[in-house]
Write a structure and sequence with these properties.
The chain has 614 residues and is an alpha+beta fold. The protein has ten helices and 31 strands.
Length: 614
């Protein structure tokens, strides 16, 4: 399944991250932050009022030295210096195909469904473009936004600046439809093969999967320790830029490697559904004076006399250059039978860039015809073979990784169970629990004939909830914030937005609309000043048709949806539309503030690791 089949299109480059960070936490020392449940900006612990937008923005700037590193971001994430680096149609890496060196273009909006944590980041985008118009290209509109998964907190301990230690996996799919996906092959054998595969039974379109790593901040790679003393000068300089006036976004940037390939009807849209080799959390020495760290989770496909391994998010780096750690020879086994040895040159940085972390391992002739048992990747530590990755045969992957629901609307948490990378059948028990819940009676369901389960979700109150799915009869309970490892568990986030139905009954005056809707956007997203003054009634009325289009629920997945933070409540939309539908300015009334809504290996503390990412 997926990009582990042939043909494959490899690409590499960089990506920028430009989110507004003021809504990422609830530090008591921060006077400007955000209530993720009530979906509104907070100043000194209370909802921002219409006349406090300027004070909120200034407070956010004042918090820059306290790690509010980007209070005026555009939310945009853009590929740059990114191009096709190689292809493989089944005969090995080819860098001579006409498609190689073609540019890869992508622009998305980086939005957190759960703003306080790192597990629910999303890229809302309209298209990805490999190649050029009029030449060899893949141009696709996504089926759904891309969501971060399998964040690896141990990817690069040499870069401790905020999320610099981490690497993250992103996946998206593009349906084979002339309106949403174009493959212009011309004289590229790789694109010809990809185009031909679209006619194969079970092929739904194209998949892209990429891994981002080595994130730097303030455009300064030397800020590797992340210490307050090290960051102080850069933070002070940014504050001074704001004081001088003008728009001052401060994006971070990462390196990336990725692969484009086949999307089959059995593949999940947003994360790998292949055979999954889950980290054991066993730490291995990586050198350069850094502490030992575990490998990240990997994926595998057994096909045509080979095993394809996706190690894009697995092998740690040990410098900010970056360089892959040399941990020695790795042994790949099936059950108790060794299959192959991976030498360091097969997983070092050069190999990583060449094939985006995918390693193809030939199967011994004695193994080709056999039903391979659980796959294991191990290494010798002080003379003792130690498993770093072990296949977890059953995986319950949610169909919707980040679900937004209006308060009171019905909702379900659905998951597809996979058995060794293939959709499972009936009779498998799946347990769903909330992250942080200590309940002794979690919800359970049994898969239907298609291997799917469905759970009713509570939407009676506004909330942001992480939900973990565990297939099989021995789930880990409870899953606390300290033990929730995104490399091990599959999960989804449920965000229930408050209904705010009382707002729909307000007089649709400018004062009420600005105080209860637009002031929130104005405070949290100052980037909107670049095209629309939200505090200007005449401008808002002039742009009424466009604002209605961009705030329509059907436009939610699009790049330019308003508000960019995706937290427009039902009541806010009703009040806004009542105002925009008016033909003349209404009487100015006193603004009504919105009401607040009623081997065993030692495990790291994932709550602490998650906190450090923000």
């Amino acid at each position: 399944m997926s990009i582990l089949e042939f043909p494959r299109i490899y690409f590499s480059g960089e990506i920028s991250w430009d989110p507004v960070t003021t809504n990422n936490n609830t530090y008591q020392a921060w006077t400007a932050n955000y209530d993720e449940v009530g979906a509104d900006p907070q100043l000194d612990g209370s909802t921002v009022l219409a006349d406090q937008v300027g004070a909120y923005r200034q407070a956010a700037i004042d918090q820059i030295p306290a790690q509010n590193w980007n209070p005026a971001g555009t939310y945009r994430s853009v590929f740059y210096d990114c191009c096709v680096s190689g292809v493989d149609i089944g005969a090995g890496l080819d860098t001579t195909d006409p498609f190689v060196s073609a540019p890869v273009n992508f622009a998305g909006m980086l939005i957190d469904a759960e703003p306080y944590g790192p597990y629910s980041s999303q890229l809302f985008f309209d298209s990805i473009h490999l190649g050029i118009d009029g030449g060899c290209r893949i141009l696709g509109a996504p089926v759904r936004r891309s969501s971060d998964r399998y964040i690896n907190f141990f990817a690069n301990r040499a870069n401790a600046m905020i999320a610099g230690v981490a690497s993250v996996l992103w996946q998206a799919c593009y349906a084979w439809d002339p309106a949403t996906l174009k493959i212009d092959a011309y004289d590229s054998p790789a694109l010809q093969a990809l185009l031909g595969s679209m006619a194969e039974p079970g092929v739904k379109g194209v998949m892209t999967r990429f891994c981002t790593y080595r994130t730097i901040y303030y455009d300064d790679l030397s800020l590797a320790s992340g210490s307050p003393e090290e960051v102080e000068a850069q933070a002070k300089a940014l504050v001074e830029k704001f004081a001088a006036g003008g728009f001052q976004p401060n994006p971070a940037r990462s390196l990336l490697v990725g692969t484009a390939g086949i999307w089959r009807d059995s593949d999940p849209i947003h994360e790998p559904g292949d055979r999954t080799l889950v980290t054991t959390n066993a730490a291995v020495a990586i050198g350069n004076g850094l502490p030992p760290v575990p490998f990240g989770t990997a994926w595998a496909r057994v096909d045509d006399g080979r095993i394809a391994l996706d190690l894009s998010n697995a092998v740690p780096w040990n410098t900010t250059a970056p360089d892959k750690a040399n941990v020695g020879d790795l042994t790949l086994s099936a059950g108790t039978v060794p299959i192959a040895t991976l030498t360091p040159d097969q997983y070092d940085q050069a190999a990583y860039l060449a094939t985006s972390g995918i390693v193809d391992v030939p199967l011994p002739a004695t193994q080709i015809a056999l039903d391979l048992g659980a796959l294991t990747l191990s290494v010798e530590i002080e003379g003792t073979p130690t498993a770093l990755l072990v296949e977890q045969p059953l995986r319950a992957i949610p169909l919707e990784p980040n679900l937004y629901v209006d308060q009171g609307d019905p909702a379900q948490g659905q998951a597809q169970v996979y058995a060794c990378g293939v959709p499972a059948g009936a009779g498998i028990t799946v347990t769903m629990t909330e992250i942080g819940s200590t309940e002794n009676n979690p919800l359970t369901a049994t898969t239907d004939a298609n291997g799917r389960v469905s759970f009713p979700l509570k939407t009676s109150a506004a909330t942001v909830t992480g939900l973990v799915f565990q297939p099989g009869n021995n789930p880990t309970l409870p899953v606390t914030p300290n033990t929730f490892n995104p490399q091990v568990f599959t999960y989804m986030y449920l965000r229930v937005l408050p209904n705010d139905d009382g707002l729909a009954k307000l007089e649709p005056s400018w004062d009420n609309v600005y105080a209860n809707v637009l002031a929130y956007w104005d405070a949290i997203a100052p980037c909107m000043d670049n095209w629309l003054r939200l505090d200007d009634e005449a401008q808002v009325r002039a742009y009424a048709p466009l604002i209605k289009k961009l705030t329509d629920p059907g436009y939610f997945e699009r790049f330019r949806y308003m508000p960019v933070s995706r937290d427009l409540t039902r009541g806010q939309r009703a009040l806004l539309y009542n105002f925009l539908n008016g033909t003349a300015p209404t009487a100015r009334l006193t603004a009504t503030a919105a009401s607040a809504p009623e081997t065993e290996v030692a495990q790291p503390d994932f709550a602490v690791l998650a906190r450090d990412m923000r």
